[in-house]
Amino acid sequence: MPDLNEPEWLTRARSLSTAEVSDALDYYKLPGSALGIRPVAGPSRLFGHAYTVRFAPIDDAQPGTVGDFIDRLAPGSVAVLDNGGRMDCTVWGGILSRLAAHKNIAGTVVHGVCRDTAEADDANYPLYARGAFMRTGKDRVQVQAYEEPVALGDVRVCPGDLVIGDADGVVVVPRARIQEVLEKALETRALESEILDAAFNGMPLADARKQFGYHTLQRAPDRLTDSF
Q1: How far is CA 6 from CA 12, 39, 179, in A?
Q2: Is residue 80 part of a domain?
Q3: What's the chain's Rg over C-alpha atoms?
Q4: Same domain for 140 and 40?
Q5: How far apart are CA 42 and CA 21, in angstroms?
Q6: What digits encode the pLDDT tens for the residues 177-197?
């Protein structure tokens, strides 16, 4: 839920799609589109700052645990869990989904798999991952680091980065670039709306796109040309 004291541009940006944000990232030559991460349970929408957790295979001297970090997360944050992309054991399940929903966590994104997806659906909790698999990660992996950079698909995620998810997947915006990226995405949305309005009113789509500069909307300034 948005903060009533947040700036107006951020409130408007909460409705942006991942496609719109991805185009804005392209404009600034920033990575951020997390390949292979998709919605697997709950609402296909999340928006919040990353709390990062990195997992590793267990040390023989120390049994692994996967979920005690849940008490560290603030309401509105997104749990970003890097299990190295492993598909053979989970680091997120039903207890965590239900508790995270109760704590008003914005959602969870896993570089790996999750389980108990029906419980996430029941809790109306947004859950993204590479897929679902039932085998527990307990005693197979352990937490290696909290609040350090992690990998999410092919994207680096740092604590506090903005994570946005919808039915198309997940994008990550670096914390220091959030405002300029989201404002660019909002600007692009407005221009695309004008293109569509012009086309609805009879202008050929090619002409409408040329008039409003459609083909350069996500092109970085140093790549702009007069060619359409």
Answers
A1: 10, 27, 12
A2: yes
A3: 19
A4: yes
A5: 22
A6: 999 999 999 998 888 777 777
